[in-house]
């Protein structure tokens, strides 16, 4: 590669998250925090747990004299914007979850390998290279005679080894060599988990590219649409999809899984395994489950992207997206057409009202608690309002009250008793005019009755069919004054 081409490539790479994380001033702190929470144990964390753990770490760093003025939420938001973290919302989850981006995983692996470098050239690595080359040469050989000769030689070697074992001459790897090979296997499997993340990113980018092709296709039916309507799964049929599907079939094959489980059980029973670190032993025990979890996550992403792309097309959502894309292009063309007529420094006689809404993460929302606004003693029915006798005159003057009917009602009640209050009259003769009947009885009582010091509550039905009540002075009508009404 020529120097200018290499320089251009590295300048482009320097703007990517991997290089920026390694070159950041607080890179060691960020890598250490992300590694301790999202790399060594859990691979993803809910937002609330992630915020709390980072907050505790920041408090510990501040106690040591480090300068970290922002909150944990602010730093995590910056890491998300810089591409060090990814945020997902799994189906059925109560909150969003954070996990490392592919760039952050590679940065952590690179720094960790520098802190604990492997031997310059190990026997196990050389053996793996030799075995891989020999296997490649044998599997690509088209000469049947050479392949038969190799198989015959292999059978002879196997027979000799069987005879040697039967005679007690058994070759066993030394503990140092076995430990070396075990660590190489752990390193290879660890690299596989990183490959899963890269494959998932490839699927994500492929999904975006297919949607962009749908948006940019001006025709009624394009290549992508024809393939999707024909039932072809474009994501699964891509190079990344076919490669991962083949790997997934091998990983989930019952025979291969049984062979791998049996080999792991045998290795874990060997004495040299006790000399491994606790972290390496734990990795071996969880190796198969970790591979299935990582592979299953990628497989689910693959299926989700495929289903969402088909739904995007079959539900005709792409037509609305295409229309919006066309409107944006029209606006850009209109702006370009006006660029020579309107100067950049010229004031436009136009007022644009900006939105006042604030966009925040869902994890920062606080649910409303009605108990905080509730009254301490609950709600009680209010007392009926009082009616002032001084206002009765004004109400009578402004209304048309049927006094003739009210007088007849009072006379009828007094035929059976010596005296009766307004409430007792209304019990036998309800207020036909509502509040007007009550006011009319009060007016009659103020002229022909006598008032006591107590009060009573009367009720009536208004024009809206709602029952209402009020407290009024207790006024009595008596038989000995009934003649004054004439």
Kindly summarize this structure in a few lines.
This protein is mainly alpha-helical.
Explain what the structure shows.
This protein is mostly helical and 486 residues long. Helix content is 59%, strand content 8%. The chain has helices at residues 3-14, 17-23, 27-38, 47-63, 72-82, 102-115, 123-139, 144-166, 175-216, 223-229, 239-252, 254-268, 278-285, 287-314, 317-338, 392-397, 403-414, 422-428, 435-448; strands at 44-46, 85-88, 97-100, 419-421, 450-461, 467-478. Strands 1-3-2 form a three-stranded antiparallel beta sheet. β5 (450-461) and β6 form a beta hairpin. α3 (27-38) crosses α6 (102-115), α9 packs parallel to α14 (287-314) and α11 (239-252) packs across α14 (287-314). The chain is elongated and about 140 Å long. The model has no long low-confidence stretch (mean pLDDT 77).
Q: Could you tell me how far the N terminus lies from the C terminus, measured between alpha carbons in angstroms?
A: 125 Å
- The percent of residues in helical segments reads 55-70%
Q: H/E series, N to C?
A: HHHEHHEEHHHHHHHHHHHHEHHEE
Major sheet details:
3 strands, antiparallel
Strands across the major sheet, in which order? 1-3-2
Radius of gyration: 44 Å
Instruction: Please report the total strand number as a whole number.
Output: 6
